[in-house]
């Protein structure tokens, strides 16, 4: 087998081109060419403009709404499978639809499992993603899943802030495990927000478990959507005597008026990764790239070397 045949190829879905370019630059490679043909009714067809036969290929694309982003990933996996790619690794920095990971009321889907099966049917032989909304989503796959932790990229940022009286906070009970992991590494205290919702994205009541008086607080979460929870938590903590409140969220969905809400809140800053393109610039939003992390993991996957240190805090 020739050396050239062993080299991987890299392709990007439309929505993640900027991040994909950063990743492959870190890897020391170039993006392959994909042409997207579009029909007048909105249907589209991706086509690889170079051979992928016998290669490991990496298809990079987050699957945040609209559903076209997920559909493009599926179609590209299917195209690669039918073009005789040897391994098809779906690199999904943000795994969309992950909030539907269980039946929390009657007659609803488990969308995360459905998407796992769709990806496998389309031809994905491996999944690389970061900060799933729920760890157990890995169990929905019959193929290997490399679930990376964004703490790898956020921890250096936190340390360079040199904050005294640091406290880590979780914006809800579900994120307490993540908050405790950060606090263990930073050797600081933890507080938790207890919230009750009227319905999705609407909070009826929020209470604080723990003391933030005289503390510099950092809220940690896997995603920020409407920013309602984070801004309400920041307001509550400042009322309880916090010196400052920052927030770290891996995936910046920032839908609707989320950015305006952040700008008008008591948050000092919001730190996010670039798994999802930022809709517009804001003086309160700082973006930390995840490209070096994904490039290193992809290199190790290609060369069959360990990536276990990227699963640990």
TrEMBL record:
| Any one GO cellular component localisation term in the record | ribose phosphate diphosphokinase complex
Which Enzyme Commission numbers does its entry carry?
2.7.6.1
- Entries under Gene3D superfamilies matching the protein: 3.40.50.2020
Catalytic class of the enzyme: transferase
Q: Which residues form the Ribose-phosphate pyrophosphokinase N-terminal domain?
A: 9-123
Top-level taxon of origin: Bacteria
Protein name as catalogued: ribose-phosphate diphosphokinase
Which SUPFAM superfamilies does the UniProt entry name for this protein?
Answer: PRTase-like
Q: Which GO terms describe its molecular function?
A: ATP binding; kinase activity; magnesium ion binding; ribose phosphate diphosphokinase activity
NCBIfam families per the record? PRK01259.1, ribP_PPkin
User: Which reactions does this protein catalyse?
Assistant: D-ribose 5-phosphate + ATP = 5-phospho-alpha-D-ribose 1-diphosphate + AMP + H(+)
A biological process (GO) of this protein is:
purine nucleotide biosynthetic process
| Keyword Transferase appears in the UniProt entry | yes
Supply the alphabetized keyword list.
Answer: ATP-binding, Kinase, Magnesium, Metal-binding, Nucleotide biosynthesis, Nucleotide-binding, Transferase
């Amino acid at each position: 087998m020739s050396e050239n045949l062993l080299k991987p190829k890299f392709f990007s879905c439309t929505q993640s081109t900027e991040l994909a370019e950063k990743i492959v630059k870190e890897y020391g490679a170039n993006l392959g060419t994909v042409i997207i043909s579009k029909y007048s009714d909105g249907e589209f067809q991706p086509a690889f403009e170079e051979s992928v036969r016998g290669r490991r290929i990496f298809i990079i694309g987050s699957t945040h709404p609209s559903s076209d982003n997920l559909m493009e990933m599926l179609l590209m996996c299917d195209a690669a499978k039918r073009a005789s790619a040897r391994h098809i690794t779906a690199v999904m920095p943000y795994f969309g639809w992950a909030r539907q990971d269980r039946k929390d009321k009657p007659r609803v889907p488990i969308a995360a499992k459905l998407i796992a099966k769709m990806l496998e049917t389309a031809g994905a032989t491996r999944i690389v993603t970061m900060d799933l909304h729920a760890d157990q989503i890995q169990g929905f796959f019959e193929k290997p899943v490399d679930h990376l932790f964004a703490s790898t990229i956020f921890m250096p940022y936190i340390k360079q802030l040199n904050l005294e009286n640091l406290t880590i906070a979780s914006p809800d009970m579900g994120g307490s495990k993540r908050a405790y992991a950060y606090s263990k590494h930073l050797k600081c205290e933890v507080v938790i927000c207890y919230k009750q919702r009227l319905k999705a994205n609407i909070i009826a009541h929020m209470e604080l478990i723990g003391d933030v008086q005289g503390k510099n607080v950092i809220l940690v979460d896997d995603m920020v959507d409407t920013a309602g929870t984070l801004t309400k938590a920041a307001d509550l903590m400042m009322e309880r005597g916090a010196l400052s409140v920052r927030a770290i969220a891996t995936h910046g969905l920032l839908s609707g008026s989320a950015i305006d809400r952040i700008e008008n809140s008591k948050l000092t800053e919001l730190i996010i990764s670039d798994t999802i393109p930022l809709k517009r610039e804001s003086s309160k939003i700082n973006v930390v790239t995840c490209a070096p992390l994904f490039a290193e993991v992809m290199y190790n996957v290609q060369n069959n070397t360990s990536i276990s240190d990227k699963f640990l805090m």
